[in-house]
Amino acid sequence: MTDRPSHLPERLALLPNAEAAEFLTEGLLTGREDVQSLKLNRVTEPLPHTDRRGELLPVRDLAEDAMAYCRAGGLKATQADAWLAPRLHAALRLTRREAADPGFWNYLSLGVAPDYVIWRHLSDTKVAADRFRGQYHKQSFARLWWAAELFRDGSDYSPVVTACANQDIMNTALRMSVINHRPTAQAIVRLVAKSVITTGREVNALMGAVNASAATLMYDVIAPDVERESRPLLDWIAEAEYARQVSRQELPTGPEEEPAPELSVSALVDYFSDLFADAPVRGREDLEGTA
Asked: Tell me, what DSSP letter sits at residue 226?
């Protein structure tokens, strides 16, 4: 099975897409080979900053602890998402501009923790290449960071845990642009937390209805968000210089941004509940017919 890299430098780096492709071998994707880490680190580019956020070991430790957390608790690998997403987000402290660089995520998956990617995503005989180098909603670590970024409510990561515990939200909602509207993201998480929607089919039906409705109705009109200020995020990033290691037991605290307005979230919870009641859910008619 693919093991941790034999060479781990002190700092994270960028691995451009073109260079990453060389290391996506059949042996790696099937978990039978290790990444040639010395060779890989010769083709990386340095991060554009030199602060503590670029230290490699804390990220490597998080990946190992996520695997240990699941193994110790007898949990499925998919259950690592809810544990790791908020902690990875809090450990990296990236801006969205920094997180938009695919080279950063390529390096995490191939240079820092390829064994985690194999452990988390190997099904049947092979891991899809886009778990190592892919779009933000597919790539192993990018999807976790963006889920934490889009589903956190200000400094509160608890909605992230709810969202990441549901693989259908991760696979469907995360790639929809409507999730960029914070009250929408919080309303969907709240429907999951209240068990209004529970199954994968229900999540997919709701997200289809929410997305279709967004084409004709501006959610920001009926459920406005506050204007977000950059200062809390920049202060939080600056605090990385003296921040302690992310707790493994407690949820971390994110940037001290204002939460999504409660009135807006509540309005969308009611609106989405009505949408879901009329949405076609595969299999629901059969169950209702036998009731």
From this structure: P
